[in-house]
Write a structure and sequence with these properties.
Blueprint (H helix, E strand, L loop, with lengths): L2 H4 L2 E4 L3 E2 L10 E5 L2 E6 L11 E4 L3 E5 L1 E3 L20 H12 L4 H17 L2 E8 L9 H12 L2 E8 L18 H15 L8 E7 L7 H14 L3 E5 L3 H11 L3 H7 L7 E5 L5 H10 L2 E4 L1 H6 L7 H7 L2 E4 L12 H13 L9 H15 L16 E5 L11 H7 L7 E4 L2 E5 L2 E2 L6 H17 L2
Parallel strand pairs: 1-5, 2-6, 7-8, 8-9, 9-10, 11-12, 12-13, 13-14
Antiparallel strand pairs: 1-3, 3-4, 6-15, 15-16, 16-17, 17-18
Helix pairs in contact: 3-4, 3-15, 5-6, 9-11, 12-13
Bound molecules: zinc ion.
Length: 457
């Protein structure tokens, strides 16, 4: 543990602060040993002497943002010509053959690049859904753990999977699928090897069959049993498009949620990416089961997927968090921008006096933490991990703004000025300072990987 971690640091007098729990911290936050040890009320000073102070008087402070759903490898296929302007199923079919050629060095570069991009946008925890395991990439989880460790990112790495290839009536090509047994063996291995259970865990593992149209029912059932046995969470895509509804009705004779329940997945250790096409009755069932939803506004708009019924889901008892989704359907990975997208998209659906900027921020912080089953991140309170994002309102776009917290969202912030993960500074002056890294070199290496991947077709 570094010396810095054991010192008391007062992040002093922020311009504005959002604690995500209603607590007053207008005088700032005191951090020690990677955790928040005190909230300082407006005009007050810390109760105990501090070793250092950090002047936050020009910064808007929020909990570190939490991204609940991503496919980091997709940073290699942003704005990919063959996939442009297509809805989900044709979009997937255009990209699967490219993705099936992913190599280990490409995944490492993509994970590092995506985590860097997210960190610079104020995101401190990332859930990644990696479901591509072609022959060259059976150690994908190990590659991602290595990249996350080097970046000092807090991650929920989900062991994704595809086992229902084209020849069995699924959507992915055969070379991109594994057998159920290969998948389950590796799921067990990575849970045992990497899943941390302690307060402040930096790496957690969840099991994540890709979607109803890319895995067998047997795998869904077995994954649910294994997750229960090892007390880890479950994740998948569900109810993203009308195509998926039709697929489920044709193949299983069930709507997606009925199918989910039939394979033992309707409970509070499950979170679903998208969760759009549900009936009122289905929303109530999701609420009663306390299922989590990773709301992905940009992706839903780009693929014309539909409007997630976020507030109705929350009112029913479901948990709602925010996500950027994979970089082939966003195509950026910027969490603070996604907060604005969530506000704007949901305003098309809900009255302005019911859907506010605070709701969008709440989803990206406390909401996302609940979705990932975490009680140690997502808000600023004593005992929580010191995961903190700070934004400077020093550009033309913010000039003349009155409410600094509202301005962060309404004027369109897109980069964090300072970011701390577990009490360690990762970003200062809008640059990654730890680890010391050459972003130009990383972008060059990453773009070379993207070109190689596209040319391998
Ligand atoms: Zn996704």
């Amino acid at each position: 543990m570094s010396q810095l971690l054991s010192q008391r640091l007062w992040i002093k007098n922020p311009l504005a602060i959002f604690t995500a729990n209603g607590l007053d911290a207008r005088g700032g936050i005191v951090v020690e040993n990677g955790q928040i040890v005190e909230l300082v009320a407006n005009g007050a000073k810390p109760q105990h002497a501090v070793d250092n102070t950090f002047d936050a008087s020009s910064l808007v402070v929020t909990p570190g943002l939490i991204n609940t759903h991503h496919h980091l490898y997709q940073t290699l296929t942003r704005a990919f010509p063959a996939a442009l302007n297509k809805p989900l199923f044709p979009w997937l079919q255009a990209l699967y053959p490219v993705w099936a050629r992913l190599q280990p060095d490409m995944l490492h570069a993509a994970t590092t690049l995506g985590l860097s991009e997210l960190l610079l946008s104020g995101c401190t925890t990332v859930a990644d859904h990696h479901y591509l395991y072609p022959q060259a990439l059976t150690e994908a989880m190990d590659i991602q753990v290595d990249a996350a460790n080097k970046m000092g990112a807090r991650v929920m790495l989900t062991r994704g999977s595809m086992s229902l290839g084209e020849k069995d009536g699924g959507l992915p090509p055969q070379q991109a699928v594994q057998t159920d047994q290969q998948i389950l063996d590796d799921c067990e291995r990575v849970i045992k090897q990497y899943h941390q259970r302690d307060h402040g865990a930096m790496i957690q593992v969840a099991l994540a069959p890709c979607s109803p149209f890319s895995v067998t029912s047997e795998l869904m059932v077995a994954a649910a049993k294994m997750a229960k046995q090892h007390d880890v969470m479950l994740h998948t895509h569900l109810a993203e498009t009308h195509d998926e509804n039709e697929f489920c009705l044709q193949r299983f004779g069930l709507r997606p949620l009925d199918y989910l329940e039939s394979v033992g997945w309707l409970h509070d250790k499950v979170w679903l990416a998208h969760g759009i096409h549900f009936t009122e009755q289905e929303i109530n069932r999701l609420g009663q089961a306390k299922v989590g939803i990773a709301h992905c506004p940009s992706s839903n708009m780009i693929l014309s997927s539909g409007l997630c019924q976020t507030l109705a889901l929350e009112r029913a008892g479901a948990k709602v968090g925010l996500a950027v989704d994979g970089s082939a359907s966003n195509d950026g990975s910027n969490m603070i921008q996604e907060v604005r997208q969530a506000l704007l998209l949901n305003r098309l659906h809900y009255p302005a006096n019911e859907m506010g900027h605070i709701d969008a921020l709440r989803w990206a912080t406390a909401g996302s933490a609940a979705v990932l089953g975490r009680n140690d991140i997502g808000s600023l309170a004593v005992g929580m991990q010191a995961d903190i994002a700070m934004f400077k309102l020093d550009e033309c776009r913010f000039s003349g703004a009155h409410d600094a917290l509202a301005a962060l969202i309404l004027c369109g912030a897109y980069k964090a000025d300072a970011v701390m993960v577990a009490g360690q500074w990762r970003v200062k002056n809008a640059e990654i300072v730890n680890p010391v890294m050459d972003l130009v070199e990383l972008q060059f290496r990453h773009s070379q990987c993207a070109m190689r991947l596209a040319q391998s077709l």
